[in-house]
């Protein structure tokens, strides 16, 4: 349907991608004029030997980083503020983030505070504006899921309020360069491959169906869906399959580009708020919620859900729009089973928490973009469905 609603898209991140692209890290830092970056990472990246590869590539180009390896999953306000203090104390002139979404989001948050001062909580979306671009930053993803290397957002946890909040929605928070090396994802455990891959799928699905979609985001979201449908099961089953790893890395980046300056929908409203209550892996939690949200949403945009069924490789010839939309939902339910996504109980949640979780999700601004009207009562229904599907998993039944 043609409309007069203004749509804009801007992404300033330069993409550098190939197998072995980590070797380009020093050169890219030099091109940005970085000589003393704060390298933001976590203990897992260090243990896997990926930090050593990054340090070698940087030092070859006479770039000497200060290592900040304190990142944890679901990074909090204190961590980001401490990183910004370290950045200033060490006289850093740029940022390198190597890791999953937590490391990249932490680095973005450090950049915001380093430039604007105060605390990262001051820059929660809707609060103090981000007026200037963060320092030169290179993002090096080691998972294939969040797409944070190209998104205009950082997600930060506030343990005092037991919520996650968004910072950004502006090109000023984006990484300056993304170095995408699929070989860095080969050592991922199957559970991380599954959760992060399903998170990429959730980004694509929600950005394709949200009310803010536009032609460019539609295009990259659909290709991301095609790649996930074709390659996630393979990457999950064969850790060293470089073809699968290459396409899953591409899927994560494409799905991240699908965001633009806007947000997602109910699945991310639920997973981000619930992730502030319990320290559950974001990818696995989003994956557990995606199918139930799609089940609820498909009546709001049946044509778009039918188009997704085709992107998943399903044969929709001679099938009604409504049936094709249902097929897309069924596909995601089965994919969730095939890659062994944990149940809500296994992720640390109880059914007694549903009313509280539903209220938090309804208060999240991502609710606004959802393709079907959703209130707290409907969030309670979606959560119950998510718990029920987890029981199917634990009983060994199909959804």
Describe what is shown at a glance.
The protein contains 14 helices and eight strands. With 399 residues, the chain is α/β, with parallel strands linked by helices.
Describe the overall structure.
Helices cover 49% and strands 11% of the residues. It has helices at 25-31, 43-47, 50-60, 77-89, 101-116, 190-209, 215-237, 242-257, 266-277, 282-297, 302-311, 321-338, 354-363, 376-394; strands spanning 14-17, 37-42, 66-71, 94-99, 137-141, 153-158, 163-168, 177-180. The chain is an alpha/beta fold. It has two domains: 14-185, 3-Layer(aba) Sandwich (Rossmann fold); 190-394, Dehydroquinate synthase-like, alpha domain (Up-down Bundle). The protein is globular. The longest helix has 23 residues, at 215-237. It is built from 14 helices and eight strands. The chain starts with 13 loop residues before the first strand and ends in a 5-residue tail after the last helix. The mean pLDDT is 95. Strand 4, helix 5 and strand 5 form a beta-alpha-beta unit. It has a six-stranded parallel β-sheet with strand order 1-8-5-4-2-3, with helices on both faces. A two-stranded antiparallel sheet has the order 6-7.
CATH topology of the largest domain: Dehydroquinate synthase-like, alpha domain
Largest sheet, order of strands side by side? Answer: 1-8-5-4-2-3
Strand content: 5-15%
Number of helices: 14
Order of helices and strands: EHEHHEHEHEEEEHHHHHHHHH
Low-confidence stretches: none
The strand count comes to 8
- Sheet of most strands: 6 strands, parallel
CATH superfamily descriptor of the largest domain: Dehydroquinate synthase-like - alpha domain
Instruction: List the domain count as a whole number.
Output: 2
What's the overall geometry? globular
């Amino acid at each position: 349907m043609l409309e007069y609603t203004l749509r804009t898209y801007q992404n300033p991140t330069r993409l550098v991608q190939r197998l072995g692209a980590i070797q380009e890290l020093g050169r890219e830092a030099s091109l940005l004029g970085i000589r003393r970056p704060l390298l933001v990472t976590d203990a897992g990246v260090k243990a896997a030997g990926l930090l050593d590869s990054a340090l070698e590539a940087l030092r070859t180009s006479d770039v000497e980083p200060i290592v900040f390896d304190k990142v944890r999953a679901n990074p909090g306000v204190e961590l980001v503020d401490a990183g910004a203090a370290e950045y200033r104390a060490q006289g850093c002139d740029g940022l390198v983030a190597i890791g999953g979404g937590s490391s990249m989001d932490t680095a973005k948050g450090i950049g915001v505070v380093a430039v604007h001062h105060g605390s990262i909580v001051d820059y929660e979306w809707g609060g103090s504006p981000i007026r200037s671009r963060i320092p030169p930053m290179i993002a090096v993803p080691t998972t294939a899921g969040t797409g944070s290397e190209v998104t205009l957002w950082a997600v930060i946890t506030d343990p005092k309020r037991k919520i996650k909040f968004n910072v950004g929605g502006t090109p000023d928070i984006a990484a300056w360069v993304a170095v995408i090396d699929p070989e860095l994802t080969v050592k991922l455990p199957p559970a991380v491959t599954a959760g992060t891959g399903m998170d990429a799928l959730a980004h694509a699905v929600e950005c394709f169906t949200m009310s803010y979609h536009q032609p460019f985001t539609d295009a990259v979201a659909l290709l991301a869906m095609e790649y996930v449908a074709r390659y996630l099961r393979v990457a999950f089953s064969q850790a060293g399959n470089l073809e699968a790893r290459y396409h899953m890395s591409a899927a994560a980046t494409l799905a991240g580009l699908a965001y633009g300056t806007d947000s997602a929908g109910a699945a991310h409203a639920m997973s981000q708020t619930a992730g502030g209550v319990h320290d559950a892996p974001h990818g696995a939690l989003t994956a557990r919620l995606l199918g139930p949200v799609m089940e609820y949403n498909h009546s709001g945009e049946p044509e778009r859900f039918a188009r997704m069924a085709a992107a998943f490789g399903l044969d929709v010839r001679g099938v009604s729009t409504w049936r094709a939309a249902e097929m897309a939902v069924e596909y995601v339910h089965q994919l969730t089973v095939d890659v062994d996504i944990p149940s809500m109980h296994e992720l640390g949640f109880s059914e007694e928490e549903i009313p509280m979780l539903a209220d938090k999700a309804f208060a999240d601004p991502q609710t606004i973009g959802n393709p079907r009207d959703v209130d707290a009562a409907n969030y309670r229904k979606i959560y119950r469905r998510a718990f029920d599907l987890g029981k199917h998993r634990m009983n060994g039944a199909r959804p």
